[in-house]
Amino acid sequence: MKISELINWFEAWANPAWQEKWDNCGWQVEPGVLHKTATVLVCLTPTLAVMQEAIALRNAGTNINLIFAHHPLIFHPPKSLSVSDPIGEMVRLAFINNIGIYSAHTNFDQVEDGTADVLAQILELKDTTPIVPTQNGLGYGRVGTLVPNMALKDLLGKIRTSLEPPNLMYSPANLEYLVERVAVLGGSGASYIKDVARCGAEVYLTSDCKFHAFQESRDYKVILIDAGHYATERPACSKLAQKFSSNGVTSLLSQMDEDFRLFY
Predict the structure, then answer these.
(1) What is the pLDDT of residues 182-208, one digit of tens each?
(2) What digits encode the pLDDT tens for the residues 63-106?
(3) Cα three-residue angle 217-221-226, rounded to 5 degrees
(4) DSSP structure class, residue 23
(5) For the chain, first and last CA: distance in Å?
(6) 136 CA to centre of own chain
(7) Could you tell me if 109 and 237 are in contact, meaning their C-beta atoms sit under 8 angstroms apart?
(8) Per the annotation, does 124 bind a ligand?
(9) 70 annotated to bind ligand
(10) How far apart are CA 233 and CA 160, in angstroms?
């Protein structure tokens, strides 16, 4: 499958037109690779380490020509580009090595097998619906039912085992509390706490939650669990690489993606 065909297939599933106004989905760098047979490196964040990994894979015989990332390389239009700047260096390496960079962010968050949907699959939630619907049954986050119901301590254990977060924060609660309804949203989801409460969820798994988000969740009687940005979005990247492979595309999951954080 050519890169142009792969992108057309993907955009029919996760249309960039669905992105938020502040977002920058789609091509970040297209150095003239559309006609090439796609060999893809999937990552969460397109960093210099991932680009260097792509170049190393090419030198070792796997001809990577597309980095497919969840997070955009470019959020705001730069006024200039320089090799002393990480974005400028990424662009330089992309053109020199003929490696495209494409990002699917808030459009990918909404779809089946997107960031939230994969989290719901991992927790084996049943009868899921979006927390905030957008169009045609799609939307941000997922809320569903645990069958059978699960004690909070066991749910925390399942999250820790499945997502392997370096740190797990949660609201003060009775660990024996039997949880039935759970909401999930990969990445930064604190702004959806009120919507989660409206959905009747007792527990909300997301990330990037500050002190007052935990206060808000307490006020809405929702047990908030923060598993970290990387841990809640990386599984969808893995699923995407598998999805590409099932469509006959050589696709690898980056081993140089990073959480960017350590906990002492």
Answers:
(1) 999 999 999 999 999 999 999 999 999
(2) 999 999 999 999 888 889 898 899 999 999 999 999 999 999 99
(3) 40
(4) -
(5) 45
(6) 21
(7) no
(8) no
(9) yes
(10) 14
Tell me how far the alpha carbon of residue 174 is from its chain's centroid. Answer: 30
Detail the DSSP E strand segments found in 114-226.
Answer: 125-129, 132-133, 139-140, 142-151, 169-170, 178-188, 203-207, 223-226
* Superfamily for the 111-229 domain: NIF3 (NGG1p interacting factor 3)-like (3.40.1390.30)
233 is in an annotated binding site: yes
**Residue of 165, 120, 169, 171 lying closest to 141 (CA atoms):** 120
Q: pTM of this prediction?
A: 0.95
Fold classification of 3-105 is: 3.40.1390
Is 105 annotated in a binding site? The answer is no
Q: What type of residue is 92?
A: R
**Residue 212, marked binder:** no
Q: Where in the chain is the domain with CATH 3.40.1390.30?
A: 3-105, 111-229
> 66, 41 in Cβ contact below 8 A?
yes
